[in-house]
Design goal:
The chain is of the alpha/beta class. Helix content is 45%, strand content 9%. The longest helix is centred in the C-terminal third of the chain and has 32 residues. The chain is globular and about 75 Å long.
Length: 545
């Protein structure tokens, strides 16, 4: 299809445990087209059908080629170019759970480069994608592969400079892309870092790229991704540096909803305003905002509609907040500020440095163990009142014809957190004081909390199944079911303590600051990126979702 220039779009993550249904993608596509976007990117790690590879995306809710064709056919009349986004090097943990792909693994989530069987698989991927998509563009990933060459590659070939491996691999992938009439783009972080004398480039000002080290196919585009900054000057500097690499540059920002049950539209708005101001002056080849689903895709992409709507306005040069609010309500039927209640913050929490600006207390306080108390030091005592406030504010939209299940789920979560947020801290205080009356009074609260988590699970399940395929829901049910079982167990042990005086070993342990900052630590929200870091200190692994 004929594409407007430059591309202006949204990348939907349909790999990190949550796979949107075709109908849900269609609804989002209509929203995006009405806002003024002209590009829809689908991020699929292994959640698409690859011919003759039954284990590729098995039990992951992968899209069939027919489903992808249906999405493309629906979007084209809306003026949306649908671009496939895959991974051709790293981010393939779920692929490697199947022994079928053992011979293609280097280390971690990284494919084994310079291995012919690897390129046989990649060619199958591209051949299948070509049958489903009409766009010539394809995003091939190739980011965050820091350990490339240090696993099975090292055993087979000995130590090889990672950059040379990366360049050879990219050249092979680009050859395959050309064969299937694709024009590849890839995340530029590894190439810019390696051409920048191996320096981390996100916060420090990059030095001049080392042109002697630069080995990039001519027709490949680089994507400068940055989800953390808000200041125009930083984006200006980075876009200028990327352009010196001599390849077309795209910019990717972030509409924050990942790693949490709630979005952060407040920070995303500040981020988009600065980024788009820089893009207007630096004119990248394309612009898109990512909507990631790290750590289980707990939050639906619809939750960041305020950020996406405002970003589209900023892109057109419209910065009048009253106009933006009025337009949003006209399109979605809910006032802009009321929709942003899903953030569960009033915006004041985004006043700190950008890298710490996204908080998820509704997640880590939900999973914070009542006896271990990992994140009790973050508590201020105001949390129950805060969550009760948001439950009351969100509840009226629980019957909304389109977004009702989203608001009902968040209402149920807030109701559970009014009971759960300080449960462990209150338990430890009463236990250490030997206050049996206070401990006895907590027993019904454990029961009520367990029931409230069950109510949340039922509301969450209804929300999930309304917009996403059922695959991946089991992850959330296992997590929340485990929490319910733990609440039951803790209540039983408290009751036994009251009856027999039996010691509760976990409550005898001191609670230390999880940041190890000692006296410098201040109570307040933090960001806990992974479920397992909140659930227990005895559970350490790198989750693929």
């Amino acid at each position: 299809m004929k594409q407007k220039t430059p591309a202006f779009g949204v990348m939907l993550d349909v790999s990190r445990n949550g796979v949107l249904t075709v109908e849900s993608i269609k609804a989002m596509a209509q929203d995006l087209a009405r806002m003024g976007y002209n590009t829809l990117m689908l991020y699929t790690e292994d959640t698409y059908e690859v011919q003759d590879e039954p284990y590729f995306g098995h039990l992951r809710g992968r899209y069939s080629m027919e489903e992808l064709r249906e999405i493309v056919a629906f979007c084209e009349p809306l003026g949306l170019e649908v671009i496939p986004c895959v991974q051709s090097l790293a981010h393939l943990y779920t692929l490697f759970r199947w022994p079928r792909f053992n011979a293609l693994r280097d280390i971690d989530d990284i494919l084994l480069a310079d291995e012919e069987e690897t390129y046989v698989l990649i060619e199958k991927m591209f051949a299948s994608l070509r049958k489903a998509f009409t766009s010539k563009k394809i995003h091939i990933g190739m980011d965050e592969a820091a350990h490339v060459g240090l696993g099975n590659y090292l055993k087979k070939h000995g130590y090889t400079e990672p950059y040379s491996i990366l360049c050879r691999h990219l050249a092979r992938v680009c050859e395959i892309a050309k064969k299937y009439d694709f024009e590849p783009m890839l995340w530029g972080d590894m190439f810019l870092s390696l051409c920048n004398h191996d320096r981390v480039i996100f916060d420090d000002a990059p030095t001049e790229p080392d042109q002697d080290k630069l080995v990039l196919p001519e027709k490949v585009s680089l994507v400068y991704w940055d989800y953390y900054h808000t200041e125009k000057e930083h984006f200006d500097m980075m876009l200028s540096t990327y352009k010196k690499l001599g390849r077309p540059v795209w910019f990717a920002g972030g509409a924050w909803k990942w790693g949490s049950f709630s979005p952060d539209n407040a920070f995303s708005l500040r981020h988009a305003k600065g980024a788009l101001a820089a893009c207007r002056e630096n004119a990248p080849a394309g612009i898109f905002f990512t909507v990631w689903g790290d750590d289980g895709a707990e939050c639906l992409p619809q939750a960041v509609l305020p950020a996406l709507y405002a970003a589209a306005c900023y892109y057109r040069g419209e910065t009048d907040e009253a106009v933006i609010r009025e337009g949003f309500e006209a399109q979605f039927g809910i006032p802009f500020d009321d929709f942003r209640l899903l953030d569960l913050n009033d915006g004041t929490e985004t006043g700190v440095r950008a890298q710490d600006a996204v908080f998820n207390p509704e997640k880590y306080l939900l999973y914070n163990d009542p006896f271990l108390g990992l994140y009790d030091p973050t508590l201020t005592g105001e949390e129950p009142a805060k969550f009760a406030h948001y439950a009351a504010r969100l509840a009226p939209y629980g019957d909304h014809p389109r977004f009702g299940k989203l608001f009902a789920s968040m209402t149920a979560l807030c109701r559970a957190l009014t009971l759960k947020a300080t449960l462990g801290k209150d338990t430890r205080k009463a236990y250490l004081a030997g206050d049996k009356a206070a401990l006895s009074a907590l027993l019904p609260r454990y029961t009520a909390c367990r029931e409230a988590v069950g109510d949340f699970l039922r509301a969450y399940r209804a929300m999930w199944l309304a917009d996403q395929k059922p695959f991946g829901l089991e992850v959330q049910e296992l997590r929340l079911g485990g929490l319910m079982a733990r609440l039951d167990a803790c209540r039983e042990r408290l009751a036994a303590h009251l009856e027999t005086g039996e010691e509760i070993a976990e409550l005898e342990e001191p609670v230390l600051d999880h940041k190890c900052e000692g006296e410098a630590f201040r109570a307040g929200p933090v960001r806990i990126p992974k479920w397992y870091t909140a659930a227990s200190p005895n559970l350490i692994f790198d989750s693929p979702v």
